Amino acid sequence: MKKAFLIIAGLLCLWNVGSADELIATADSLYEHRGDSFDTETQIADSAEIDLAIDLYRQAMESSSYDTKVEATWKLLRAYYFKGNFTTDDKELKKRIYDDGKKLGVESLEHFPESAGINLWTAILYGVWAEEYGKLKAAREGAAGKIRDYCQKAIQLDSLFGDAGGYRILGRVHFKSPKIPFILGWPSKEKSQRYLERAIALAPDNLYGKQYLAEVLYERDQKDKAISLVQEVVVSDNNSLGIAETARVKKESTEILEKWLKD
Fold it and tell me: What is the 3-state secondary structure (H, E, C) of the chain?
């Protein structure tokens, strides 16, 4: 059944048939299966489903409908993120995927600045892009400030979008960005904690939100709370993030917990 579905989706890509809404629906179905082949040992999933989804979202972006273009665009950005993060461990390939996604996001915001989804996923792609390209290149592009601004816009437009993703990524960028006097003065661990607590208040079951808040709490000397929170991630049976995402965040949280318990 799954193989037949992939063949049909592939033919849709080749023939460029179907309405934009039908293309998105098929791409969404493929996206739902993105992590079915995820290998917990290699931490890699097969790219077949996500590659077809990307092609279909691209086709749907050609729609004349504003709302359909917006939906196809943010879902394409989301697919780029998954492809780069979960289907390869090749650093150069990751760079190319994230670079393509980041550029698409920035260009799309020129046409659709009021989309919470495009703002949020552009921020996320900018974040993983910065991790792959390194601090120097990220600083030259002002990546941290752009991520902050995109997140603030996403919150303004729809604070609940993506499990309160605007607050979660805003808290993360405050945590990960170094505070540099006279150059980068706004990052704040206190604000990071505040934003991540807000994210969890709005989306209490999101495992990434719990992991990110735990890291902030630990660094701010609230170690008992941090350990308790990351333990919740490790033992959770919540799979709402997806198969690959849940396996990855639980693996990372397990490693964090082991390190903290040794300290």
Answer: CHHHHHHHHHHHHHHCCCCHHHHHHHHHHHHHCCCCCCECCCCECCCHHHHHHHHHHHHHCCCCCHHHHHHHHHHHHHHHHHHHHHCCCCHHHHHHHHHHHHHHHHHHHHHCCCCHHHHHHHHHHHHHHHHHHCHHHHHHCCHHHHHHHHHHHHHHHCCCHHHHHHHHHHHHHHHHCCCECCCECCCCHHHHHHHHHHHHHHCCCCHHHHHHHHHHHHHCCCHHHHHHHHHHHHHCCCCCCCHHHHHHHHHHHHHHHHHHHHC
pLDDT tens digits, residue range 48-65?
999 999 999 999 999 889
One-letter amino acid at 13 equals C
Per residue in 170-192, pLDDT (tens digit) is 999 999 987 776 567 788 999 99
Q: Is the pTM of this model over 0.85?
A: yes
